[in-house]
Amino acid sequence: MPGRRENNRTLLVSFSGIDGAGKSTQIEALSARLAEDGLRVRLIRFWDDVARLKGIRETSGHKIFKGEKGVGSPSAPINRRDKNVRSGAMTCIRFFLYFVDAVSIRQVVKKALHSDADVVIFDRYTWDELANLNLRNPIVRAYIRFLVGFVPRPDISYLLDAEPLQARSRKPEYPLDFLYANRQAYLTLATRIGGITVIAPMTVREVTRQVLERAREELSDRMVPRPESLIDASQDDSMRYTEANIRI
């Protein structure tokens, strides 16, 4: 018997992490497993479905800072210049853009909670924007506290930690020194925000197992699953998501 909701409460899940951390792979794995259990899953991509004023972002990244467009790959690396550009002026612009996105995400979440989806998965969330800010600045920290209280909190927020050197080999878009700084910002932010599930760097299979275990814990309070649903991925010989299937 497929899983079903015990009530009308939709589960909100978000995935965050530096570029190349493996978010797409884990989102795909979790979505497939939940769908196999009869749950209706909806995916929301932050940059496509939530972020606003994209013209301003493109202008700053490509025309002003001369960054390259597209998505980097091992065979075709690129040099982006957007979130890795730091200045007082850019911080002010980010304050404005991130607040606009926060208003947008409130609207998106409201619609998602009134949809027929059992689980809504966010590919990136507000946390991914806040990690671009200088967390040592007291004004920035006050802004972060405000925004964290303003946006809806997902039921599960995954932070996929990753070694920057390995992440960049998968998705070469930003300088290595920025990835190290960005990784530390994510970890610091997770500590200050609280309630974020940080998954340490490990094999793709092990990360998938931990993601499924956390989802199972949350779903157990609101779903009636099949007896075999959300079983330990490490015991599933038919699991399709191995390191050979990485898609970042």
Overview of this structure, please?
The structure is a single chain. The chain is of the alpha/beta class. It is 46% helix and 10% strand. The chain has a five-stranded parallel β-sheet with strand order 2-3-1-4-5, sandwiched between helices.
Mind describing the biggest β-sheet? 5 strands, parallel
Uncertain residue segments: 1-6, 224-248
**Count of helical stretches:** 9
Query: What is the share of helical residues?
Result: 40-55%
Label the overall shape.
Answer: globular
Short description:
With 248 residues, this protein is α/β, with parallel strands linked by helices. Helices cover 46% and strands 10% of the residues. Helix 1 (23-36) packs across helix 9 (204-219).
Helices and strands in order, then pairings?
Elements: E1 11-16, H1 23-36, E2 41-45, H2 46-50, H3 54-64, H4 88-113, E3 119-123, H5 126-130, H6 138-150, E4 156-160, H7 164-170, H8 176-193, E5 196-199, H9 204-219
Parallel strand pairs: 1-3, 1-4, 2-3, 4-5
Helix pairs in contact: 1-9
Main features:
disordered C terminus, 5-stranded parallel sheet, 9 helices
